[in-house]
Model the fold of this input.
Amino acid sequence: MQLKAQKSIRYVTPVTSNLEDIRHTFPSDNLPAGKSKAPYCRQLLYKNAICQKNGRWITSLMSIPELNDPLALFHNWLHEAEEKEVGDPTAACLATASIDAIPSARMVLLKNADSSGFVFYTNLESRKGDDLSNNPQAALCFHWESLHRQVRIEGSVALVPGGEADQYFSTRPKAVQIGAWASTQSKPLKNRSHLDQRVVEYTAKFGKSTVPRPTHWSGYRVAPERIEFWQQEDFRLHDRVLYVRDGSIWHHKSLFP
Ligand SMILES: Cc1cc2nc3c(=O)[nH]c(=O)nc-3n(C[C@H](O)[C@H](O)[C@H](O)COP(=O)(O)O)c2cc1C
Done:
């Protein structure tokens, strides 16, 4: 489901209603070169403080929409990243940890995201596959430079059903399917020609027939327990909203930047 970007309004406790106080809150060495303190702080005040209601400021400083469903917000941001990001917006850093709690991280591509979780595909006998078979917990981190945004996802991991992996594998170009057979991912490679030779062998083996999905290649689904949205803001006063799953509902709270 794609949503239009929304501007959120959140209540904050008033620090001050006095413009002079606000000016003094931000020393001039934090201001961009050439900007005088007073107009910049006034702009900051006007941008952030809309009005006071029931003794509290209503502010637009926090720009992350608060939805009941963080998946909808994720898709909203991903959609915006698809339009603006120069690189692949589905690229995410995947962190795993070994049975000895040694962490490792690498990039993967997100292939599906719905209420059941975030799916990526890989070789199950790779280093990450070893980690996940021993310790089925993972974190994904998306960074969209063009939007100054980050999303962090954490949760337990399970293999996708075989039929789902077969369906996805069948959509891959044949050369990529052969590559999944030829590469014993993360294992030592004597030299490049050894990989080339394996590609030739599997290309000959499958010929013109359909390439089946290797049993050592499939997808993992990260079932999110925590999803944190981060939006860059002025003066490093970034906006962060953490969603934590409680059964079928999500609670959210703001975090200090
Ligand atoms: C942008 C990008 C996307 C990648 N996507 C995947 C992917 O979806 N699946 C995968 O197995 N490796 C992917 N890789 C390669 C991994 O980062 C990594 O090198 C490989 O999976 C082996 O990791 P491991 O030894 O920790 O298991 C990608 C690399 C980059 C730079």
